[in-house]
């Protein structure tokens, strides 16, 4: 029965895969509206909304100009106002489109690598939690993933055809990637290796490929050169943040992180799902022990660039979820190859395993089938908190929890500088005395600011969670998105941008100012 799953390209399976990819990428694409909580998305939308036919300089160089120009042209084609909200939506639209493109490319690649089970790889990518999430952010990650996989596919294709027209397409796509984010320079590697392995005029074709790529970078992100001083200033700042040379409050979670281990504990199990991560490690161990991976040029154009990318980005001080996103496609490729090799004649086993592997992604879709948890929490606060009450919350979020219009007061306190500004501990003590509720909008501060480097913050949260402050947990707003794992243990940007857990504490035992002083100022 399961042998019937081997449909040709024009069969029903590719169509179903395409429909599933569209559904998982476009459902709930308006999440968070009318509030937008992702900082990079907001920055890109702000830059896009400033563009006009008389001014194409976005004055924003954390990313390249190509995605901004693509969004601007799209808005003009559909005669939509170039305002902030529309900029958000058009960026999300293209992010979803590129993610669907990645699924299509994965099917084409699988048809060349393991044609009998070609449906498996795109299905794993369709229900990858990390790829579903990134498709709902109006940022550059899905474009970069698409470019990386496209260059892998074109490299494999070139090795089998030697068609030089592929070189032009590879240079164009890589140029678009670098014109979107400078770190996409890594994505020249697959096709560069293909030119070397093909051994057909590499001394001529490699310079041609690099020159064409550079031309496309300039064409689609011209202000990197036109406004070179601002571009380099942004690059130096971003590099400083990435390496830890420029300390900022939003990278404190990495102070005690271990390179490479962090990614396998805090990123991949959440991005891929725990079952897929475990099977990937099993497959990797199997291939290493049995030495059963066929070392071919086709396999090397996948393995070598991925390994170089991981080794470079894995040791960086800043280990954000999105830094690893181009590699989210690699474990599914390994797993699809592994299952094809091991269970080639037992498709029923492959099908059952696949259903198990996609469960986390199916469950993760809950996030976009329901209202944003912050909007649900805000609505509950408005309907249930007494009037003229005081709520102590946390500043530093991109958008504070929306609570207007209400009759109660929200104090968004600066906990990030609690241990650096000598005036803040006394202000916190005063706020505790005045507040009836404490609102924790995400895990961002209490998970990151603990230990001897943050004595005040550590004592405050320990006292809150143990009840010493006199506040009792009243309500927890938890999005149902993670299967087998607790999302709050992941790298923080995985949850805080679109599905944080929100906690509300109510004052049940009032304390005096001196009591709060003793709790906050004394050692545990």
Secondary structure elements and pairings:
Elements: H1 12-26, H2 39-49, H3 66-77, H4 84-113, H5 120-126, H6 129-135, H7 141-161, H8 165-178, H9 189-198, H10 202-220, H11 223-226, H12 228-243, H13 261-266, H14 268-272, H15 274-290, H16 297-315, H17 330-342, H18 347-357, H19 359-364, H20 366-369, H21 373-384, E1 390-394, E2 409-413, H22 424-434, E3 437-440, H23 444-448, H24 455-466, E4 471-477, H25 493-496, E5 502-507, H26 513-521
Parallel strand pairs: 1-2, 1-3
Antiparallel strand pairs: 3-5, 4-5
Any key phrases for this structure?
single chain, mainly alpha, disordered N terminus, 524 residues
Verbal overview:
The protein has two domains: 317 residues, no CATH class; 151 residues, no CATH class. The chain is 57% helix and 5% strand. The protein has 26 helices and five strands. Strands 2-1-3-5-4 form a five-stranded mixed β-sheet. Helix 4 packs antiparallel against helix 5.
Summarize the model shown.
With 524 residues, the chain is mainly alpha-helical. It is built from 26 helices and five strands. The chain folds into two domains: 37-245 and 257-364, no CATH class; 371-521, no CATH class.
Secondary structure class reads mainly alpha
H/I helix tally: 26
What is the straight-line distance between the termini? Answer: 65 Å
Radius of gyration: 25 Å
Uncertain runs = 1-9
Largest sheet: 5 strands, mixed
Provide the β-strand percentage band: 5-15%
State the helicity in percent bands. 55-70%
For the biggest β-sheet, the strand order reads: 2-1-3-5-4
Mean pLDDT: 92
The number of domains: 2
Number of strands: 5
**General form:** globular
């Amino acid at each position: 029965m399961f042998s019937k799953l081997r449909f040709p390209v024009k069969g029903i399976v590719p169509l179903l895969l395409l429909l599933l990819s569209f559904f998982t990428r476009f459902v709930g694409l308006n999440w968070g509206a009318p509030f937008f909580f992702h900082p990079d998305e907001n920055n890109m939308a702000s830059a896009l909304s400033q563009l006009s036919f008389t001014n194409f300089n976005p004055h924003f160089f954390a990313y390249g100009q190509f995605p901004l120009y693509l969004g601007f042209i799209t808005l003009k084609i559909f005669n939509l106002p170039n305002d902030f909200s529309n900029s958000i939506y058009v960026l999300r639209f293209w992010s979803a489109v590129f993610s669907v493109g990645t699924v299509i490319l994965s099917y084409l690649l699988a048809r060349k690598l393991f044609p009998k089970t070609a449906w498996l790889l795109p299905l794993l990518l369709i229900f990858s939690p990390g790829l579903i999430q990134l498709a709902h952010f109006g940022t550059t990650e899905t474009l970069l993933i698409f470019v990386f996989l496209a260059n892998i596919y074109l490299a494999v294709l070139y090795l089998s055809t030697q068609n030089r027209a592929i070189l032009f397409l590879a240079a164009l796509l890589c140029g678009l990637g670098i014109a979107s984010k400078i770190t996409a320079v890594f994505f020249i590697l697959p096709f560069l290796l293909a030119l070397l392995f093909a051994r057909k005029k590499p001394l001529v074709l490699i310079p041609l490929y690099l020159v064409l790529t550079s031309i496309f970078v300039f064409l689609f992100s011209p202000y990197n050169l036109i406004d070179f001083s601002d571009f380099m200033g942004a690059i130096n700042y971003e590099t400083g943040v990435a390496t830890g040379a420029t300390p900022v409050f939003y990278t404190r979670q990495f102070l005690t992180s271990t390179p490479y281990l962090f990614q396998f504990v805090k990123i991949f199990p959440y991005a891929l799902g725990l079952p897929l991560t475990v099977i990937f490690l099993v497959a990797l161990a199997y291939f290493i022990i049995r030495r059963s991976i066929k070392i071919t040029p086709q396999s090397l154009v996948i393995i070598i660039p991925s390994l170089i990318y991981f080794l470079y980005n894995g040791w960086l001080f800043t280990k954000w979820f999105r830094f690893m996103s181009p590699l989210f496609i690699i474990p599914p490729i390994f797993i699809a190859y592994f299952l094809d090799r091991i269970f080639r004649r037992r498709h029923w086993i492959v099908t059952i395993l696949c259903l198990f592997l996609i469960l986390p992604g199916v469950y993760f879709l809950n996030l976009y089938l329901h209202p944003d948890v912050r909007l649900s929490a805000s609505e509950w606060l408005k309907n249930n908190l007494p009037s003229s009450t005081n709520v102590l919350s946390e500043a530093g979020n991109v958008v504070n929890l929306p609570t207007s219009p209400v009759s109660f007061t929200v104090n968004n306190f600066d906990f990030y500088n609690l241990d650096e500004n000598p005036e803040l501990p006394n202000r916190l003590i005063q706020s505790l005395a005045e507040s009836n509720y404490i609102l924790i909008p995400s895990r961002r501060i209490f998970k990151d600011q603990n230990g001897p480097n943050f004595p005040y913050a550590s004592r405050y949260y320990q006292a809150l969670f143990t009840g010493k402050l006199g506040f009792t947990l009243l309500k927890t707003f938890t999005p149902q998105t993670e299967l087998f794992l607790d999302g709050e243990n992941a790298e923080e940007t995985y949850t805080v941008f679109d599905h944080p857990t929100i906690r509300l504490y109510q004052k049940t035992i009032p304390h005096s100012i001196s009591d709060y002083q003793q709790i906050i100022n004394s050692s545990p």
